Amino acid sequence: MGSLRRCNLCLKRTNMTRDHIFPQSIAMPVQRQINFILKQVKPEEKSKRKTSVAQNGLQKRTLCGNCNNKVLGTILDPALEHLCKETSVQLRNSKFLMNFVMHLEKVQLNKVARAVAGHFIAHDDNPSHKHLLVKALRRYVLNPDQNFPEEYRFHIWLYPFKEQAVMKDLFHAQLGSGYEPFAISAYKTFPLAFAFSNKIHNPAYAIKGTLDITEYLSSDLDEYFKIQIDARSVVDRNWPFAPIKDGAILTSENGSITTKPYMNTKPYPY
Fold first, then answer.
1. How far, in Å, CA of 63 to CA of 65, rounded?
2. H helices then E strands: how many in the chain?
3. How high is the pLDDT of residue 45?
4. Is 264 exposed, middle or buried (0-12, 13-18, 19+ CB in 10 A)?
5. Which of 71, 162, 165, 164 is nearest to 115 (CA)?
6. What per-residue string of b and e applies to 155-181 under the rule 16 or more CB within 10 Å gives b?
């Protein structure tokens, strides 16, 4: 029986179930080291753990059974799984080809975007009732007839790395550019990374290799798309937790994490 609290997604007060923030179908639940990125230096944060070890991947008890098993597990996650598996297969093939461009077919983008949003919301330790992005994404996930929130953008890029990350509320500023800070939150696990951001006004943040697919999103969950990804353009593995030239990152106190496969380095006794 799960713990009684409000579900991060539907906000109903009930028993929680365990959600793999990075679904087992796309990320093998191996032992991983979790690194907590503290956004502000506060006296009360100094005593908290900076790292932990998760035996079966990052999991949280933040979703009710309906949101976890039906909304995500049954309806949305299979589309995310298909996209990631097809990308993995073509990524392996790209090692033997020059100038390789991936052609991904039968991609249900409207389910993929919602699945990513659902797991991104599930990562919070507590429901974010007033957080503007989370509120907009919550309505988007739970209402199949609703379009992607018009004030935000959705991005995809190739991510051929073992590290995972959920990064929330990063505000990029480029010194002397005259542009307002660029806000972005990301969800990254091999072989793809995804991000929600505000509209890009400063062209410096139109990072080469990222695809802004917002204009293709609609309320038609069953619509299929073809996606092309240039395997030659690999985005910096740390983006968006990496400032650009003459740039800086402003952060909030909202938690972000990175994970990597854990290796016990303690020597064996003889």
1. 7
2. 4, 14
3. 54
4. exposed
5. 71
6. bbbbbbbebbbbbbbbebbbeeeeeeb
* pLDDT, tens digit, 9 for 90 and up, residues 109-136: 999 999 999 999 999 999 988 999 999 9
Q: What is the DSSP letter of 215?
A: G
User: How sure is the predictor about 74, in pLDDT bands with cuts at 50, 70 and 90?
Assistant: very high
Cα–Cα–Cα angle for 148, 237, 138, nearest 5°?
Answer: 20
Dihedral of alpha carbons 70, 71, 72, 75, sign: positive
163, 187 contact by CB (below 8 A): no
Residue 37 near residue 185, CB atoms below 8 Å? no
Q: What tokens were used for 85?
A: 């598996």
Higher pLDDT, 27 or 111: 111
Q: Rounded to two decimals, what is the model's pTM?
A: 0.91
Calculate helix-pair angle for 77-94, 109-122, nearest 10 degrees. 100
Task: Return phi, psi of residue 134, to 5°.
Answer: -65, -40
Q: By the 8 A CB rule, do 261 and 162 touch? A: yes
Locate 18 and state its tokens: 């365990």
